[in-house]
Design goal:
With 86 residues, this protein is of the alpha+beta class. The chain is built from two helices and four strands; from the N terminus they run E-H-E-E-H-E. It has one domain: ACT-like. Chain A, domain 2 (Alpha-Beta Plaits, 2-Layer Sandwich), CATH 3.30.70.1150. The chain has a four-stranded antiparallel β-sheet, with helices on one face.
Length: 86
């Protein structure tokens, strides 16, 4: 199965859910290329972007599991490049 590079954009409005979010990210850590987090103190939220290289079903699973957490939104944006899994 081929892999795709994608960005998962995450908005954290409920800091109480970050432990669960980090558990999901740890579960899929083998697919994560990098992570960047920006605290937006004025709005009391955190903005996180996760770069991944994974099969589409894995990307959907990560985004879906995180998006189901209370006070957290997640969306994925995919590249069009599909490569063989390394």
């Amino acid at each position: 199965m081929g892999t795709r590079v994608a960005i998962i954009g995450i908005i954290v409005e409920n800091p109480d859910s970050t432990e669960e979010m980090n558990a999901v990210l740890h579960e899929y850590s083998q697919y994560i290329i990098g992570r960047m987090g920006i605290p937006y103190r004025r709005k009391n939220i955190n903005i996180i972007s996760i770069a991944v290289d994974a099969p589409s079903d894995i990307i959907n699973a990560i985004s879906g599991k995180i998006g189901k957490l209370e006070g957290i939104s997640a969306k994925a944006a995919y590249s069009q490049v599909i490569s063989d899994h390394e």
